[in-house]
Amino acid sequence: MILALALVLALAGYSLFFRTYLDADRYLAMALAATGNDPTIINADEPDFQVGLHKGRLTIHFVFQTVAREGIGSISLYIDPLRKTYFDVEHHATYTGLP
Question: In what order do the strands lie in the sheet with 57-68?
């Protein structure tokens, strides 16, 4: 009985944490705003993302694919879910020889 109660409390706490700190739609909106709603992003609706550590901090890492005159690339953006702010962004470009 005690084990079942502890399990229910643990699951409720886990669920509360993820609803409070890991609202995917909210963080997606923050990430897009941080890019200035870059019109070259081609996967704005469904970017790659993961929860992990970056520079010793818990982060939500978004990867947006872009297409621009210079070529194809990506934008990596890191959001701190506890502070609800982004704190690092990286641009990666791959030249494709487009005119």
Answer: 48-54, 57-68, 71-80, 85-94
Angle CA 39–50–54, to nearest 5: 95
For residue 10, the 8-state DSSP code is: H
- Is residue 81 within 8 Å of residue 73, measured between CB atoms? no
3-class SS of residue 33 = helix
The string of pLDDT tens digits covering residues 36-79 is 888 888 998 888 888 888 888 888 899 999 887 666 688 889 99
**Domain residues of the chain, as ranges?**
23-94
pTM: 0.68
